[in-house]
TrEMBL record:
Gene3D superfamilies membership: Alpha-1-antitrypsin, domain 1, Antithrombin, subunit I, domain 2
Name this polypeptide is given: Serpin domain-containing protein
Keyword Signal attributed: yes
InterPro entries the UniProt entry points to: Serpin_dom (IPR023796), Serpin_fam (IPR000215), Serpin_sf (IPR036186), Serpin_sf_1 (IPR042178), Serpin_sf_2 (IPR042185)
Gene Ontology molecular-function annotations: serine-type endopeptidase inhibitor activity
PANTHER family membership: GH10112P-RELATED, SERINE PROTEASE INHIBITOR, SERPIN
Length: 389
């Protein structure tokens, strides 16, 4: 019996906790739990800095789950902390993706889905309708006999949807004539700070107690949201973006060796509220990061096994073909500059005098910290990561 691998592809950023139980709030709450588990696994397997998007993973894997059955589906729902009811889950993600798509000069949040069936591959109409109507997915048949052309077609679409910040997501060597379906999701974000930083300067970043390196820091003293937290033994700094209700939060442990403790409880860390508002003296690294992650071994540790084997039941996608998931790559890009966070070229440095405002709070991130970008209306986390060196 021929087993046709299914290649699952991710583009890039989510999660949050809400009290009410509408479909939107349910998927955001479940996404928060998934994001916490995902961050913990990545922290144990990834060396150095990393950035990822739990939202991007959740979106495309939720679509996959709608085509799974039996134990395969049960493992996906349990391992990903998905909302169990298909209708509630798809309605929730439909509302979430609709609310996230913003495309203005100051703020861009663009999510896109696409399925690439092989030419002649019999995709179930019910699955195709779910993809198009509930996940706003495009559909394009592709010839996997020519793996170079197929990979190029998918990578070109990913590049277009991410302002060319994500390149070569699909390795043509991962495709073969037996590949029957690719599911792709991208999430692109670009935002300008409500209050740009005053200037940048060079200082020492302490990766460990004994290791440090000279890097560029962004410096400013201005109105921002902050909170010292005894529960997590950390300082929180929240910076808003123009043009929408989106912010970036930096979480700095009080102890220079306290990062692991924060990462082990990431879900609780990302739900902190409320914040204080005041004049904050801020010093954070200016950085650019791109991370490529193979999520298959990560998900296996989270209890998802069957979908990667010949015993996978994805008959909701095709009742005439035996499918299994072959790979789940995710590539994510982030750049933090004086003017904002964007997937774009670096901004020139302009030095201005330091502020004479007396700060209410000081936030100096010169040792390892966490960060996440959140849509505050829903509480969905778009991107998250850590900076350690």
């Amino acid at each position: 019996m021929l087993l046709n691998p299914l290649l699952l592809v991710l583009g890039i950023i989510i999660g949050c906790h809400c009290q009410e139980q509408t479909p939107l709030q349910k998927v955001v709450e479940s996404g928060s739990k998934f994001n916490g588990n995902l961050h913990k696994e990545l922290a144990n397997t990834q060396n150095g800095n990393f950035v990822y998007s739990g939202l991007s993973a959740n979106l495309v894997l939720s679509l996959l789950t709608s085509g799974a059955k039996g134990d395969t589906k049960n493992e996906l729902v349990s391992g990903l902390n998905l909302v169990q009811d298909d209708k509630e889950r798809t309605n929730g993600y439909k509302q979430l993706t609709s609310s996230l798509n913003v495309n203005s000069e100051d703020l861009k949040v663009l999510s896109a889905n696409k399925i690439y069936p092989a030419k002649g591959f019999p995709v179930e109409e019910s699955f195709k309708n779910t993809a198009v109507n509930d996940y706003q997915s495009e559909v394009e048949n592709i010839d996997y006999q020519n793996k170079e052309h197929a990979a190029g077609t998918i990578n070109e679409w990913v590049g277009q949807k991410t302002n060319n910040k994500i390149q070569n997501l699909i390795n043509p060597d991962k495709l073969n004539p037996e590949t029957k379906l690719v599911l792709a999701n991208t999430l692109y974000f670009s935002g300008k700070w409500v209050r740009p930083f005053d200037f940048s300067w060079k200082g020492s970043f302490h990766s460990t107690e004994t290791q440090s390196k000279e890097i560029k820091f962004l410096q400013g003293t201005f109105q921002a949201k902050y909170r010292p937290c005894r529960r997590h033994q950390a300082k929180f700094l929240e910076l808003d973006f123009q043009g929408g209700n989106i912010s970036m939060t930096f979480v700095l442990p009080n102890d220079r060796n306290g990062l692991k403790k924060l990462e082990d409880t990431f879900e609780g860390v990302s739900e902190l509220s409320p914040m204080y508002t005041g004049n904050v003296q801020i010093s954070i690294p200016k950085f650019k990061e791109e991370t490529t992650i193979d999520l298959v071994p990560v998900f296996k540790k989270m209890g998802i096994q069957k979908v990667f084997t010949s015993g996978a039941d994805l008959s909701g996608i095709s009742s005439k073909q035996n499918l299994q998931v072959d790979a789940i790559p995710q590539k994510t890009f982030i750049e933090v500059t004086e003017t904002g966070v964007e997937a774009a070229a670096a901004t020139g440095v302009q030095a201005v005098p330091t502020s004479l405002i007396r700060p209410d709070f000081t936030f100096t991130a010169d040792y390892p910290f966490l960060y996440y970008i959140k849509e505050n209306n829903s509480g969905a986390i778009l991107f998250a990561g850590r900076y350690v060196s």
